[in-house]
Design a protein that fits this description.
CATH topology of one domain: Rossmann fold
CATH architecture of one domain: 3-Layer(aba) Sandwich
Structural class: alpha/beta
Number of helices: 21
Largest sheet: 8 strands, mixed
Strand content: 15-25%
Shape: globular
CATH class of one domain: Alpha Beta
Number of strands: 25
Helix content: 40-55%
Length: 599
């Protein structure tokens, strides 16, 4: 039997069968606490797989899951692969048209949904999906065209018990899979165009999980929350399949809005999140700091002073003097406990991905004992670069991960050598698959711009396709400038604009703490949308823009900007919280056009 995602899962079941594997958390929005052992998980997945085989699933066909972070996701994911199928995720936030697009593109023959709302999305487009034969809903509503989750699992169990040929066929498919067979189809978030399905082989899954384990030092017995969408590569590979390989228990958070409550209840040792979660933690701590008075205020200031020096020494690879470590730990004991307590109190490792964590946030948390390791990857090659627990920086993505080799092309594009960690291609798109690699097929073209330092660490400088081409012919990479703007205490979010124009402009969202402080000084209401047009606020933001502009070349400088009263959210962002630039630009077309009048 080849090493596949299923074979590694079954090895884990044999080793840890009666240990908890999945824990559905009431604190995370579930109806009740529920624990599944590795053996119970395997039994449900086998029944799910048998139901697929009995229903006529052919090897290589696609089965989709449109659901949140409940037990159905991991059970279905392994079940599909046991049956020889390819597991496809659909973002829970998808509109009906987006659901149709994914299911039609992959030709899904079955889909699992977990709520009435998700079921209605499928029903709305089912007439456009001729390949879709099976719909399984956690809570079916009695309609003839939908099976309940309980009915589906029971049908698989019955088929195994009554039909020996089903068990035989299932065993053949489970044990006959090859490492290069397709295991998973992950759709990119589509920030720059129509989503494409990236095919990931069993080899990709296992090599990536091993690279994550070896790079970050995950170990048997670690625990982690699962609150990011399973349909994204980070949670599917970095989360689910790495946890299987290592032997980690997962706390499933059904409502990511209750993630902090879930962390306090589950107390994970590993915390992997997007930058926004760490920004919220830092904002909450800063509010406590701002409210501190007298001795407590002195405690905050001294702790942060010592913590920043400690962080600087650690990042430089120098030893921290015992006296500094002792004073920081003693004076800041209650503050450090508070910071770590936000993540459950038992966290030994925190990671951030999907976008760049603002430097001021990373530095602030590190000074309070929460070191957040940043990295870089993409669906097509998730394990690209990552900082290490014992050697890290806060302003870069770290050196290549175990098993990865990268270089930078003459035009600045980051290239990754094709190997076991690289995807197999885009489903049904041979031309785009060829275009994803260099002409000789050796290097994956990431589409990102970057540089490699003398220490081998990667600095990502923006998207190649997102370069703003000014009418002068100059090209501007927006990502590092936006990150610098968001690093100022006055600015929460920024998006640069200027394609075809003769200078760079920006849409800017003020940072809430700074806005509230300004409003208090000027007798203004920070929640009044008209405050964005106040010239006094504009002057304060202008000073922040000027600070960033001072470090930029003339074509890169933000000449004019508009203040937005509300943050980018919802349709403005991809599921991994990257800016949908074309959507935002169209939404604010009048404001942007006004910036170029009489210029």
């Amino acid at each position: 039997m080849a090493d596949t995602a299923v074979s590694i899962f079954l090895e884990r079941v044999r080793a840890d069968g009666d240990r908890p594997a999945l824990r559905l958390l009431a604190a995370g929005g579930a109806a009740r606490d529920e624990t599944l052992t590795w053996r119970e998980w395997a039994g449900l997945s086998r029944s799910f797989a048998a139901a697929l085989v009995a229903a006529g699933l052919r090897p290589g066909e696609h089965v989709a899951v449109l659901a949140g972070n409940g037990v159905e996701w991991p059970v279905a994911d392994l079940g599909v692969m046991m049956a020889g199928g390819v597991s496809v995720g659909v973002y829970p936030t998808s509109a009906p048209g987006q659901v149709r697009q994914v299911l039609a593109d992959c030709g899904a023959v079955a889909v699992v949904v977990d709520t009435d709302a998700q079921l209605e999305k499928v029903r709305a487009v089912r007439h456009e999906l001729p390949h879709l034969r099976i719909v399984v809903a956690t809570q079916a509503d009695g309609e003839m065209d939908v099976l309940s989750w309980a009915e589906w699992i029971a049908s698989g169990s019955s088929a195994l018990a009554a039909l020996p040929e089903i068990g035989h066929e299932l065993a053949e498919r489970t044990h006959g899979a090859r490492a290069d067979d397709a295991a998973i189809l992950i759709y990119t978030s589509g920030s720059t165009g129509e989503p494409k399905g990236a095919t990931l082989s069993h080899r990709y899954v296992l090599a990536s999980a091993a690279s994550i384990r070896d790079t970050l030092g995950f170990r048997h017995g670690d625990t982690a929350l699962s609150f990011l969408p399973f349909c994204h590569a980070a949670e599917r590979i970095f989360g689910l399949h790495t946890r299987i390989l290592v032997g980690m228990e997962a706390g499933l958070v059904a409502d990511h809005g209750r993630m902090w409550e879930a962390a306090r209840d589950f107390r994970p040792t590993i915390f992997g999140g997007l930058p926004r979660f760490y920004e919220k933690a830092a904002d909450a701590l800063r509010r406590e700091q701002a409210a501190a008075v007298d001795g407590e205020r002195v405690q905050w200031e001294r702790t942060l002073f010592l913590g920043r020096e400690r962080s600087r020494l650690r990042r430089a690879g120098e030893s921290v003097p015992a006296e500094l470590e002792r004073e920081w730990a003693q004076i800041g004991a209650s503050l450090l406990e508070r910071a770590r307590g936000m993540f459950g109190g038992h966290m030994r490792l925190a990671t951030s991905g999907g976008a760049t964590l603002p430097l001021h946030v990373a530095e602030y948390l590190d000074a309070l004992g929460v070191t957040v390791l940043g990295g870089y990857g993409l669906t097509e090659h998730l394990c690209a670069a990552f900082n290490r627990p014992d050697a890290y920086a806060l302003d870069n993505a770290g050196p290549p991960m175990v098993g990865t080799e990268m270089r930078v092309a003459e035009d600045g594009e980051i290239l990754i050598r094709r190997g076991a960690l690289t995807f197999s291609g885009y489903h049904g798109r041979p031309a785009e698959t060829r275009g994803a690699f260099t002409a000789d097929g050796t290097w994956l073209r990431t589409g990102d711009l970057g540089s490699l330092g003398d220490d081998g660490a990667l600095r990502v400088q923006g998207r190649k396709k997102e370069l703003i081409a000014l009418s002068s012919g100059k090209k501007v990479a927006p990502l590092p400038i936006e990150a610098a703007l968001a690093g100022d205490p006055w600015i929460h979010q920024a998006m640069l604009y200027g394609e075809g124009r003769h200078f760079v402009s920006a849409l800017i969202v003020p940072a809430r703490p700074a806005l509230e402080a300004w409003a208090g000084e000027h007798a203004a209401d920070p929640d009044d949308p008209s405050v964005a047009d106040d010239p006094r606020l504009y002057r304060s933001i202008q000073a922040a823009v000027d600070r960033v502009n001072a470090g930029l070349s003339n074509p890169e400088r933000v000449r004019r900007f508009a203040i937005l009263p509300l943050p980018f959210d919802g349709d403005d962002l991809t599921p991994t919280l990257k800016l949908r630039r074309t959507v935002i630009a169209e939404r604010h077309r009048d404001r942007l056009d006004a910036l170029y009048q009489e210029h």
